[in-house]
Amino acid sequence: MSLPVFLILFLISSFALAFVFRAGLSRALPHNQAIIARDMPLTAAFGIMVIAVYLFVAIFAPLLAPFAEREVVGSQFQPWGGAHPLGTDRLGRDMLSRLIYGARNTVGIAFATTALAFVVGAFLGIWAALRGGWLDQVLSRFVDALMAIPSLIFSLLLLTIFGTSVLTLILVIAAVDATRVYRISRSVAQGIVVMDYIEAARLRGEGTWYLIRHEILPNALAPLVAEFGLRFCFVFLTISSLSFLGLGIKPPMADWGSMVRDNATLITFGDITPLLPAGAIALLTVAVNFVVDWQLHRASGLKE
Amino acid sequence: MHEVLKMVAQRLALGALTLFVVSIVIFGATELLPGDLASAILGQSATPETLAAMRAQLGLNDPAPVRYWAWLTGALQGDFGVSLATRRPIADMIEQRLGNTLFLALYAAALAVPLALVLGVLAALWRNSIFDRVANAGALSAISFPEFFVAYILVLWLAQSGYFPSMVRISPTSSLADKLYMSFLPALTLTLVVTAHMMRMTRAAIINLMASPYIEMARLKGASPLRIVLRHALPNALAPIINVIALNLAYLITGVVVVEVVFVYPGLGQLMVDSVAKRDIAVVQAIALIFASAYVLLNLTADVLSTLTNPRLMKRG
Fold first, then answer.
1. Any idea where the domains of chain B sit in the sequence?
2. Who among B37, B144, B279 is closest to A282 (CB)?
3. Which CATH architecture has domain A40-300?
4. ipTM of the complex, rounded to two decimals
5. Using the beta-carbon criterion (under 8 Å), do B273 and A268 form an inter-chain contact?
6. Shortest alpha-carbon distance between residue B218 and chain A (Å)
7. Which of A216, A205, A207, A59 is closest to A122 using CA atoms?
């Protein structure tokens, strides 16, 4: 009953916050960036604000959290209030502290995974587009075959084979997502490789590495950055889902996905505590999506 | 007609080839292990005798192609071997659950596809209106939500008040009405997750066409906006829409895994997650093969259907 009311209040306050944030940003920044900030839609301002807050919380987690990440500080499932503003979890650990540390662990691992997938996928994709011929054929057909399997299913298969630990989780998800990154960076690079300046650089006798670093990457950056945002959302959701299923990041490490799983029983008593980590995941993905949407819109130069 | 048959045959052959390659990948993944499956399962402390026994039990003494052929021909006849954890035939474990999962996916699809089409057409019709903006922002948010978040919100909202059960207890003997009622919440969760994407794409596909001259013509001759969208734009937008629907139905396959766990639904996804935790590779391989086949088949169907709606596509490569 109170859910729709809460939702509307949340929407109104986040719009107001985004408005204030945008106004503040266009004051604080130097002139040419202030114009960009002033013209961005409210959704994008909201997204940037949320991402900034998450970064702040992740970096200063030990200072912000009232208790340690793994410390048992009270009895289990304490209600909200008192020394524990959000109560305690299944083992009596402080919920708020674990939420704060979760920002560091969950987002950090997702970011590392995305970065790894990007380095591998983008390098192979651009290399394949540059070299062409049999290398391109072999790599592309291989990636096609891997992409014919749904990514969550393939990740589950690989996790069964290599076991479930944080390191294998990062490597497996990065490998699965690198195939998607390969696809897009290859198609982007293919449009660039046929340009005259690449031909000129080749005739100058530049090596493959130089071509990738100095000629192709700078020109492929805009679509790749947008793809990085979207890919981060996918990876973040996948890792959270796997953690929720008990196959990803495992306790005692604080992680939002596994926190939902651990405390899910509370839902049946009408307690919304387990929704907080899930909401934290949702909020970040929405924020990143808003920013990417705006960037894509800006890059394409489209005006509705 | 002859050309159509040829096209369908070509796509079918391509699909069969894809399935073959997928089966090789799913089987061959175990060969990536530094040691072999037996040492991975038993761990560091295994004695040579138990290792040898495990290898014999898993049939690891045969070369990989021989094992692959035996596995594939078995799977094609519905025999997936025995589970490593429970020693029961995998086919028995899967049979009941496959039906349940298919039921859930079809249920969600039956809710999601009409809803997405109607919302998408309406959003395109009332472009840039409040309805369009709200629907778009809502869709973007719904795409970004993890399935378990949507699921638990629904539980909190609809199961707390006692309208629907939060745990699905269905058995083969349950009646259809009972099943529909029991699995309403999981189906609704899946619907919400996939509708957003389909709706956005339907809207985009129709709006893309709205700028074409023949739509302008229809508008000039005085056709009503609804008639323009339904009679003139929609038929030409069918190809991309069919593709998106198939893509999202394929997405249902993976979405089903998380949702089944939330609602304790006795389906394949639940079994797969349990088996991954137990590292029961035989069961995981079997289920992965089933899910991947469904995925490939859906994409194949979409390809054929969208080619049929737009004969110009027949000429492409």
1. 90-314
2. B144
3. Orthogonal Bundle (1.10)
4. 0.83
5. no
6. 23
7. A216
Q: Which residues in chain A touch residue B40, judged by CB atoms under 8 angstroms apart?
A: 161, 163
d(CA B253, CA A152): 10
Q: What is the DSSP string of chain A?
A: -HHHHHHHHHHHHHHHHHHHHHHHHHHHS-HHHHHHHHHS-HHHHHHHHHHHHHHHHHHTHHHH-SS-SS-B-SSTTPPSBTTBTT-B-TTSBBHHHHHHHHHHHHHHHHHHHHHHHHHHHHHHHHHHHHH-HHHHHHHHHHHHHHHTS-HHHHHHHHHHHH---HHHHHHHHHHHHHHHHHHHHHHHHHHHHTSHHHHHHHHTT--HHHIIIIIIHHHHHHHHHHHHHHHHHHHHHHHHHHHHTTSSS-TTS--HHHHHHHHGGGGGGT--TTHHHHHHHHHHHHHHHHHHHHHHHHHHT---
In the beta sheet, which residues pair with residue A93? Answer: A72
Peptide bond connecting B213 to the previous residue in cis, omega within 30 degrees of 0: no
Amino acid at A71: E
The two structure tokens encoding residue B10? 């070509």
B310 three-state secondary structure: coil
Residue-wise pLDDT tens digits, A271-295: 778 888 888 999 999 899 888 888 8
- Concatenated DSSP letters for A156-170? HHHHHHH---HHHHH
pLDDT for A241 beyond 60: yes
CATH superfamily of B90-314: MetI-like (1.10.3720.10)
Residue of A nearest to B149 (CA): A278
What is the distance between the alpha carbons of residues B209 and B216, in angstroms, rounded to a whole number?
10
Q: How many angstroms away from the CA of A200 is the closest CA of chain B?
A: 32
Q: CB B301: neighbour CB atoms within 10 A?
A: 15
Query: Residue B73 is encoded by which pair of tokens?
Result: 């021909």
**B156 with A275: Cβ contact below 8 A:** yes
pLDDT tens sequence across B127-138: 878 888 788 878
Residues 6+ apart with CB under 8 A from B295: A148, A149, A150, A153, B250, B253
Measured between beta carbons, which residues in chain A are less than 8 angstroms from residue B24? 145
* Spatial distance between the Cα atoms of B148 and B261, rounded to a whole number of angstroms: 9
Residues of chain B positioned with their CB less than 8 A from the CB of A281: 146, 149
pLDDT of A111-151, one tens digit each? 999 999 999 999 999 999 988 888 888 888 888 888 888 88
DSSP SS3 for A59 = helix
Q: How far is A68 from chain B (nearest CA, A)?
A: 26
Q: Which residue has the tokens 């990636």?
A: A143
**Identity of residue B17:** L
**pTM strictly above 0.80:** yes
- CB–CB of A296/A226 below 8 Å? yes
Crossing angle (nearest 10°) for helices B281-309 and A151-162 = 160
Chain A CB contacts of B144 below 8 Å: 233, 237, 282, 285-286, 288-289
For the stretch B7-62, pLDDT in tens is 888 888 888 888 888 888 888 887 776 666 677 667 667 778 887 877 777 777 77
